[in-house]
Amino acid sequence: MATPPMIEAFGLWKQFGSFLAVRDVTFTVPKGQVVAFLGPNGAGKTTTMRLLTGFIAPTKGQARIAGIDVQTNRIEAAEHLGYLPENGPLYLDMTPRDLLTFFGSVRGMSRAQLQDRMEAVVTQCALSQVADKPTGKLSKGYKQRVAMALALLHDPEVLIMDEPTSGLDPNQIQGVRKLIRELGQTKTIIVSTHILQEVAPIAHRVLFIHDGKLVFDGPPEAMTADGLTMEEKFHRLTAQPV
Ligand SMILES: Nc1ncnc2c1ncn2[C@@H]1O[C@H](COP(=O)(O)OP(=O)(O)OP(=O)(O)O)[C@@H](O)[C@H]1O
């Protein structure tokens, strides 16, 4: 039997006033694939991700996570989904452990379940040394790991991560990349990034968005297949308005 797609976008459009931020975006991601979302600033990556999570409604089109419509059945779809927003909101006075407890209770997890998952994500995201410190006192890299732990708490099969390495130093970037690679062994992932060098080591596939449209869909190697560097291909894909 064919692997069912875990993420599906069908003819997604999003208009803000008279501005079209996402234009007819269609793709599916099979189980276990790690996809990098590339594109210049303002291309529509975040908007597309927010449409996929059900946080905003499309002007037209449909998105599904694990086969579930994110608009008509948002809560059920959210059970399969972990979302890491860019600069995700964190309650900075709370410790990572408090935050995980709070989010776990909001999700209706039992004490035993929560304890179990708490230990798992604290280990997975290498938070044990800081789990009882106020989140506001942590470095940006650790804050990002806390946000990641929150997204992973309910052990979702699908992860959508918006620029998880932005603003981190090279060591922190390496740590987050390693974590994404590990997660990619068991989960279906979309991760947006501006860092071209990070695409090949983490992703099986690139979806490139420009002016709200999908302008490239293929493996990272195909970005450089015509003898261009990643940077040259990026430039070429964005040289013309769509
Ligand atoms: N709520 C909104 N109201 C009006 N315009 C918006 C809104 N959200 C996004 N936009 C616009 O839609 C376009 C796409 O934005 P989006 O954040 O999706 O791009 P992006 O590819 O994620 O960019 P970046 O890489 O800078 O994060 C931008 O021009 C942005 O200003």
Present as ligands are: adenosine-5'-triphosphate
Q: Got a strand count?
A: 10
CATH architectural name of the largest domain: 3-Layer(aba) Sandwich
Tally of structural domains: 2
Q: Can you count the helices?
A: 9
Sheet bearing the most strands, described?
A: 6 strands, mixed
Topology as a string of helices (H) and strands (E)? EEEHEEHEHHHEHEHEEHH
Question: In the CATH hierarchy, what is the class of the largest domain?
Answer: Alpha Beta
> Considering DSSP H and I runs of 4 or more, what fraction of the residues is helical?
25-40%
Beta fraction of the residues? Answer: 25-35%
Q: What Rg, in angstroms, do the CA atoms define?
A: 18 Å
Mean pLDDT: 92
Question: How are the strands ordered across the major sheet?
Answer: 6-7-8-3-9-10
The gross shape turns out to be: globular
CATH homologous superfamily descriptor of the largest domain: P-loop containing nucleotide triphosphate hydrolases
Class from secondary-structure proportions: alpha/beta
In CATH, the topology of the largest domain is named: Rossmann fold
Q: What distance lies between the first and last C-alpha atoms, to the nearest angstrom? A: 37 Å
The low-confidence parts are none
